[in-house]
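Sequence of TetR family transcriptional regulator (Mycobacterium paragordonae).
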Amino acid sequence: MDKVAAVAGVGTQTVYRRWPSKAPLVAEAVMQQYPPADFTLPDTGDCVDDLRTWMREYAARTAAPENVALIRALAAAAAEDLDDRDSLYRQLTGRVHQAVQDRLAKGIALGQIQAGTDIEAVADALIGAILYRVLSSTTPVNETLQRYDGLIDTLTSGLTPR
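Predicted 3D structure, token representation.
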């Protein structure tokens, strides 16, 4: 917060009046870079293909070094304070999570996804895979795409033999 105040040429208290902690400041900065349209999933009529396309787009977007740094900074900010974590979740991940659930619900309604599927758990798995890859490794995009494709294949076909 001190650095933000110095760059802005204002006192630290001025920054704290606008943002009570680091996480809301970071979240607002992120939201200015990613318009709401970025939190929607494709809807071509094929739910599984749309999920695959969405994950591929995220893989390409998060591969940029500045985005990796940003996501890691957000994770660090969220880890510092539980209230900040909840605020960041609502502002950022919550939108994506809801968009994935909405797309899956539509897939259920169209008979493309098995009725009774725990769409919240599926959204957790897909978003969690993205965050895990960004936070824990610096793999090439093509390797990340293979992992995402493997995850979607496993989620859509299941783990047990038929």
